[in-house]
Structure formats: structure tokens, C-alpha cells
Design a protein that fits this description.
about 100 residues, mainly alpha, 5 helices, globular
């Protein structure tokens, strides 16, 4: 379960066990947490990637996109997975139903 979706917190950064703060650059990651692989999806510059990550998460919180409407990072995720973006989108649409 997602603590924000279940209304346990008002923002992901409030959840003690969330990786949000580390990924957003607000806190140092714990030794076992790696965020580079995720941030690479959001950009090559670390500051810009962190900003894009925060915008991405907060857009979901504001209801500005559906769960599977990941327009910015979808292409980057597909490239990271060495997958055609249209194919990835078709998989996500099937999961949505």
C-alpha cells in the first residue's frame, strides 16, 4: 500500500520509510538505497532530474495525470528497459483495466 494514497500522510516525504526525500535530494540516502538508476529516467543532470522527479510525484498527488499517464519519463523508462515506448504504453494500458 502507498501511505499517501491511504491518507496516512499528506506528502510522501512525511513517511519515515519512503525513499522520496533521498531521491529528491532532501536527505542523504541510507547506505542500502540507490537512487541513480531512477533519477537517470528523469534527466542526465542530477539537479534537473531531482526536480523532474518531484514534479512527477506531485503531479500525481494533484490529480493532474492518471496512474499510468507518465508522459515525461515513459520514453526514458522504455529506453532504460531497451523497449519500444509504444509497446510499453500498450502493456501499461492493459494493466490499467
Amino acid at each position: 500500500m502507498n501511505p499517501w494514497e491511504t491518507k496516512l500522510v499528506e506528502h510522501p516525504k512525511e513517511w519515515k520509510w519512503s525513499s522520496f526525500e533521498a531521491t529528491a535530494g532532501l536527505n542523504k540516502p541510507l547506505p542500502f538505497l540507490t537512487t541513480d538508476w531512477l533519477l537517470e529516467i528523469f534527466g542526465s543532470d542530477i539537479r534537473r532530474a531531482r526536480g523532474n522527479y518531484v514534479k512527477f510525484v506531485e503531479a500525481d498527488m494533484d490529480g493532474k495525470r492518471s496512474k499510468l499517464e507518465y508522459k515525461y519519463p515513459l520514453k526514458n523508462i522504455a529506453n532504460y528497459l531497451n523497449m519500444d515506448p509504444n509497446y510499453l504504453c500498450s502493456i501499461l494500458k492493459k494493466l490499467e483495466t
